[in-house]
Design a protein that fits this description.
17 helices, alpha/beta, about 450 residues, single chain, Rossmann fold, 2 domains, binds 5-phosphoarabinonic acid, globular
Length: about 450
């Protein structure tokens, strides 16, 4: 299902460096597997078959079926790890233009997202468009206090309270949060709405294969068993690191570490499918929040090719030599379009007549990586059999495990995100939140000077 190709990256590293790193990787792998590394309280995602109980999965499917039936629009409220995974899988697996299909064609409500930024115009226009439709929502927040999500929930909840009776509201609001604590847990218990749990031992960015991602994905009509099956496939495939058996997942973590040591401090995740744009966003969060600590870490960036070859392509080919690329390449496409022959051949494209667009896209990928390698940009590619829930599950696990190993190789905790607090504290102080008075005074002094 997945196959990593590193031939266009190995010329940029040395065999000695690789051999030197292997014992460190063995330690990192042992730490992850035995749950003895930094942040090991948050490795509940590691054993995919154990993330969800059968009962839990059945409950997710049951609630999702009800919401699918009763809703034209399904809103998912969350930020960071509480929304990126669901959005990634939905956009990667479903139709490119869901807004232009009616519900019977989609077989599911239109899924829209909120609570992942603070734009007033976005929320106002969202409220305008949902007015005339049957709406339900899933608010997802482990802490229950994340400002962006909490504000969106307050606004959309009061919209829903005006639109629906208290009894109907119970059927339309679903909460995903901590099992025992936090504002959303209290709300769910008091309001009597359905709720799901963000497992204690899974952080947001590793949570897509738990209820956090599975409920919205199921409401969108995607088979969550297939997604989990792909995750389990990857879990089993990349489980062992015995006798220096360098499987693809370990190899990816090793290669990026070695490239970084050679000064390639920026990894560009490249896709050739627009439906994978959000996948790159999910991957950016996974690696950015996990690795960017103690003044270290590879900067995760993304590009959509061939689109961005006409914007970033020049820099990649000839700019500062600090980046390497990792491309996701699908071996097949779901649909078939061939270039038609035209008698006048005024556009000079008859040499492509009869050839499939996917083949042309694949050739563009090969041509691009060869040019970029020649320009001094190491390239890796991950070949994926097809664009499907199963392969998405496998991709998700591949990168989660590689990310955790990368963190341990770099001697950091890949499961916390202490740096995210800095902006929040400043924002609370500047907005006048009680108990932030001292910080507010300091910041105001800074602003006024
Ligand atoms: O990966 C993470 O842990 C974060 O990105 C969180 O998911 C994000 O900050 C949202 O937090 P919460 O689920 O508490 O609202």
């Amino acid at each position: 299902m997945l196959s990593l190709k590193t031939q266009q990256a190995t010329p940029f590293i040395s065999e000695e460096e690789l051999q030197y790193l292997l014992p460190f990787m063995a330690t990192a792998h042992r730490q992850l597997e035995s749950g003895t590394g930094p942040g090991s309280d948050f490795t509940g995602w590691y054993h995919v078959p154990e993330i969800n109980t059968e009962n839990n999965l059945q409950r997710i499917e049951k609630v999702a079926a009800r919401l699918r039936e009763s809703s034209d629009i399904f809103l998912v409220l969350g930020i960071g790890g509480s929304y990126l995974g669901a959005r990634t899988v939905i956009e990667a697996c479903n139709h490119h233009f869901p807004n232009f299909l009616d519900k019977s064609q989609r077989g599911a409500p239109l899924v829209l997202f909120a609570g992942h930024q603070l734009s007033e115009d976005y929320l106002a226009e969202l409220c305008d468009i949902i007015e005339d439709y049957d709406v339900s929502l899933n608010v997802v927040s482990k802490s229950g206090t994340t400002t962006e999500t909490a504000i969106a929930f307050r606004i959309l909840r009061s919209f829903m309270e005006k639109k629906y009776s208290p009894e109907e509201l119970k059927q339309r609001i679903v909460v995903t949060t901590d099992a025992n604590k936090g504002a959303l847990r209290s709300y769910a218990d008091e309001a009597g709405v359905d709720s799901f749990v963000v497992p204690d031992d899974i952080g947001g960015r590793y949570s897509v294969l738990s209820a956090v991602g599975l409920l919205p994905i199921a409401v969108a009509g995607i088979n969550i068993r297939d997604l989990l099956d792909g995750g389990t496939w990857a879990y089993e495939k990349y489980l062992k690191y015995e006798d220096g058996n360098i499987n693809d997942c370990i190899n990816y973590a090793l290669m990026r570490h070695l490239l970084a040591q050679r000064g390639y401090w920026l990894e560009m995740m490249v896709n050739y499918e627009p439906s994978m744009t959000m996948f790159t966003e999910w991957w950016k969060q996974l690696f950015g929040e996990s690795e960017g600590k103690n003044g270290r870490g590879i900067f995760p960036a993304g590009a959509n090719f061939t689109t961005d070859l006409h914007s970033l392509g020049q820099y990649i080919q000839e700019g500062r030599r600090i980046l390497f690329e990792t491309s996701i390449l699908f071996k097949s496409s779901q649909r078939e379009i061939k270039v038609p022959r035209q008698d006048d051949n005024s556009d000079q494209l008859n040499y492509l007549a009869g050839r499939r667009l996917h083949e042309i896209n694949q050739t563009a990928a090969l041509a691009t990586s060869m040019a970029h390698v020649r320009g001094g940009v190491p390239n890796m590619s991950l070949e994926v059999s097809e664009r499907s829930p199963r392969s998405l599950g496998a991709l998700i696990y591949f990168f989660e495990k590689a990310c955790a190993l990368s963190g341990y190789l770099d001697a950091i905790n890949p499961f916390d995100q202490p740096g995210v607090e800095a902006y929040k504290k400043n924002m609370f102080a500047l907005l006048g939140k009680p108990s932030y008075e001292d910080l507010r005074a300091k910041l105001m002094e800074e602003i006024n000077n």
